[in-house]
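Thread: G5 domain-containing protein, structure

OP (GT): Posting the sequence first so everyone is looking at the same thing. Length is 218 residues per the record. Can we get the structure tokens written out before standup tomorrow? I want them in the notebook alongside the other entries.
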Amino acid sequence: MNRVITTSPLNVLTNNAYIILQTYRTIIEDITISVPFERITQGATLCQNLSKKIVSQQGVLGIMTQTFRKTYEGGDLVASEIVEENLLKEPVKEIIILEGPDDNPNQVPQIGYNCTYWESYVDNNVSASAEEKQWLKFTMKWESGCNAESNKHSYYKGLFQWDPCLWYEQFPNDNIFDGKKQIQRTLAKLRAGARPQYMWPAVYRKYVATYGELSWLK
């Protein structure tokens, strides 16, 4: 295709007029492209670091052909448009199964925010000194509101707001939302030398302001 541009009327050639002849050519070009596959993750975990990913279905790229109409002015491409697409092969989704700690609050009795219940449990069912019991009751009240099913925080869970990675690294078979287990494990951790000012810093500062330093930490 040719295009004529001139400063003269089309049917009359005047003196000093100029004529530009622009030549266009159009080609049809087919290309084959890969179609990306979707990656789906199934399952949930409370700690990514203790989880593993298992590919249950391998993803496979799809194949598509695209037909382009390309227009050139001289040797320069001035227009390109897709005029047809054909999907030759559907992509296959990749499915990844996430395996790791996946306990949830619905797996334990639904007691909710209930300091009366948990304080009574500590007083009557936990073998501990009066000072240990006082610290346990104070800490669970201010950490979670005495709610063993506490799951609102992104990183901390349960009655004493444990970090799930720290919890499951040490107690892989214990549900973090089991309040009785949290009391048992927290007391054992305290007796083993855990420093509450590092594990529960804000609440421990409040405890010290109320009752003073724990006797064995003075």
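GT: Both are above now. Quick notes for whoever picks this up: The CA atoms of residues 47 and 166 lie 9 Å apart. The chain has a mean pLDDT of 91.
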